[in-house]
Design a protein that fits this description.
This protein has 126 residues and is an alpha+beta fold. It has one domain. Strands 1, 2, 3, 4, 5, 6 and 7 form a seven-stranded antiparallel beta sheet that branches. A hairpin with a 2-residue loop joins strand 5 and strand 6.
């Protein structure tokens, strides 16, 4: 189901016209203002989910573009630790009382590039 949702969202991004200036101006995710947007990726703002409650933030964001999966992984592997995120044994990242999961996927069949799905949630047992 997630793969289907991601494929649909990715297809919308590839088909939707986005100007080069709009891509350059967007440097951080709109729903996660402290999360940088890798050059070459575009945020799918209509698919974002953001909730803040007493136990913390829950955020889902999607990005996609004509970049390689390895480039996305390398960009965030280098960038996230600089922002205080520590990589955990299970591949997630932890900062203070939050957990970040980054899922990188190839473009759907017939499209080029790749995309990523960010999931931010409170850490259990804070």
């Amino acid at each position: 189901m997630r793969r289907l949702l991601f494929s649909l969202i990715f297809s919308i991004v590839i088909v939707a016209p986005v100007s080069a200036t709009a891509q350059q101006a967007a440097q951080f995710l709109s729903v996660m203002e402290d999360m940088p947007l890798m050059p070459g990726l575009v945020e799918v703002t209509d698919a974002a989910v953001s909730f803040a409650g007493p136990s913390g933030r829950i955020i889902e964001a999607f990005v996609a573009g004509s970049v390689q999966m390895d480039a996305i992984r390398a960009f965030y592997a280098a960038t996230l630790p600089q922002l205080g995120w520590a990589r955990q044994a299970n591949g997630e990242y932890r900062r203070d009382t939050e957990i970040l999961r980054l899922n990188v996927s190839p473009a759907p069949v017939g499209a080029r590039g790749a995309g990523a799905h960010f999931v931010l949630r409170p850490a259990k047992g804070q």
